[in-house]
């Protein structure tokens, strides 16, 4: 059980600390809408496994193998087929923006049956489809698996995750996403972090660079840029000119804590108001000791075991700190660490400080 007491100093007012701007090029502040990758998915077979493939319990693997052989002109029954060197897999890839036929992409292969390992396997030709059902990539090749799984005589040893692997440049682009980038009439930039001040700064930077652009902010995340007449049909040149514009960012006072692991991530410039922290704790330990009860030789009794419990309670030393106005969270963490406060205690202290109004930052609890 732990008790936490926060005493706010009533005579001090927390002063607003101005944000320090950080200048970054526009390409690192915002992304251009429509310029993105597309997710692809396919189902295939991995062959050449050394007895680590799917078992007869995976009926879909047997059926898939029979269908594959039928397409090759070989008819086999689905009963009594042993597929220990074959595994059914799900294959995924991302079609990059502006990907053209003939280019290659990496693919990820994951077992969807009861295979114990894909190490040493080869993915057979697998078409990868987009959400529209069209085939954009065809994947095939030898897998790279960063792990292994071995078993013998009831014992097994597994390292990492052997039921998933990758094929570098194992996918060949067969179809490109339609659309001509240079035909655009309007560009829209999406800020990576929603902020109205940053959106206005992006608009000002673009309009200063190109007064004819008439850029405007649609909201705290989106900036719209009509394509000037002199750049019609030359959108690539326009984007190249805009993406290097320096943008001054708003720094955000934010503290992120993870209660499950006791992890605290904070900006060192997050400020704290005047506050006193007093923390006391009660440590309780329970010890169970086993004992054997041995009867007399002629008593016809039975030997039995009993357990006795011992409970100890001890008050821990009170820990106290007094912080001046403007103290950073980094300094607070250093001071609390010096007095022996654990990361989990620090999480509780920061939450209590936020509730008390002494932490002048956004507190996110994961």
Question: Which key phrases capture this entry?
Answer:
Alpha-Beta Plaits; flat; alpha+beta; 6-stranded antiparallel beta barrel; 3 domains; 4-stranded antiparallel sheet; disordered N terminus; 366 residues
Describe the protein's architecture and organization.
The structure is a single chain. This protein is of the alpha+beta class and 366 residues long. It has three domains: 2-16 and 254-283 and 315-365, no CATH class; 38-173, no CATH class; 181-249, Alpha-Beta Plaits (2-Layer Sandwich), CATH 3.30.70. Helices cover 17% and strands 40% of the residues. It has helices at residues 26-29, 59-71, 196-209, 235-242, 329-338, 343-356, and strands at 2-8, 22-25, 30-32, 38-47, 86-95, 104-111, 122-129, 135-142, 148-152, 155-159, 164-173, 186-191, 216-217, 222-226, 246-249, 254-258, 263-266, 271-272, 275-293, 304-315, 319-323, 327-328, 362-365. The longest helix is centred in the middle third of the chain and has 14 residues, at 196-209. The protein starts with a strand and ends with a strand.
